[in-house]
Amino acid sequence: MRTALALLALLSTxxxxxxxxxxxxxxxxxxxxxxxxxxxxxLERITNVNSGTHNHEGVRAVGQMLVPEFEALxxxxxxxxxxxxxxxxxxxxxxxxxxxxxxxxMIGHIDTVFEPSSPFQLFARDGDRATGPGVVDDKGxxxxxxxxxxxxxxxxxxxxxxxxxxxxxxxxDAGDPIAQSRQHLIEAGQWADVALGFEQLSTDEGxxxxxxxxxxxxxxxxxxxxxxxxxSGVFSEGAGYGxxxxxxxxxxxxxxxxxxENLTYNVGFMAGGTPAEMGADNLSATAVGKTxxxxxxxxxxxxxxxxxxxxxxxxxxxxxxxxxxxxxxTDAQIEFAFRYPPMAPTEGNTALFETLxxxxxxxxxxxxxxxxxxxxxxxxxxxxxxxxxxxxxxxxEGSGSHAEGESVDLRSxxxxxxxxxxxxxRLAENPVAREE
Length: 436
Known about the structure:
This protein is an alpha+beta fold. It has helices at residues 5-13, 23-34, 36-47, 56-71, 139-155, 178-181, 183-191, 242-257, 309-324, 347-363, 410-427; strands at 76-81, 89-95, 103-109, 124-126, 129-131, 162-168, 194-197, 202-204, 207-210, 217-226, 229-230, 267-273, 276-278, 285-287, 293-294, 297-304, 330-340, 369-370, 389-391, 398-399, 407-409.
């Protein structure tokens, strides 16, 4: 359900009278700062428990470590088992407040890309920087969530708030079918007025940036076929062009005809021959053939990323039209797998961003710019973007995500928690009229 909540919040924070921190907001700032070392200790504890997506026991263990943290703040906590999609599950924490208070969804994830077989397993601190598996993606984001909520409790602004914290256990490799693995998250998005994604903070040349949009992440599989025979007949009316020329025609037409802003369509791998076959894992292919035989088959898989659903629909239609214009003696089929939808830029998202920038001014921080969506990958917040205004990139600053040596700027946990706590508290000042 979309509301004018974000626009109302923008108006309430943009006036000169609001251009300073309130006593409650000053309490939030001090509380986050005072609990810095405790937050680092919690980050170390949960980082040192391996929670690679496919380590179900580890994902559940980290979830259980977080249960008392949320319960201490008055949240009802539920572990949602996901064995039916071969994943560990999700941790949802809910706090019901005033009926007319805005409904805020905070999104993070417990899992990491580092499975137990990875040599990169432990948290290590060097001053205000730390390394560890998932330390910024996304265990640091979870700590930001908890630090912000504790600050709100200390300031009295958590009382009466309507908040759901959704920590998925398979963000790095969502379970299939995705409609089932993301069912509870989508339902939470339909409930929410505002969604905040606590993955890594975007920066540009050292400047903090706001994320109001993220692109989709989908894939496609292309197969072509042709009449096989002796190569001397290639291009003839009887033999045609063969599967590889048809594949080359299609891929080159994608390159030439599809380009538009924020649209990409990478080709990950391809193979052609007599025969060419896709691997059972859909991540490989095999082919054999001779130079004097016209190939009878070719296969390719690729990626498709878009900024809006309209762009997705337009690109899919254009790709299908290209695939259907076959060379003589050939045929082709393309199949699309739609995984992560886009988080499209909206007026509500922009209004939330401007509200956040008003908070930056009150905190004495540099204004944020808008981070280019083409430079951010897909994320769980995209599943709720059609229903609620949102901001992504609310987690800490770091580097090297998904690689050994992944690191986090520990002081950015403080900065981001202060921003989040004040943002949610200011949003809560605007009652929402709901239809009965």
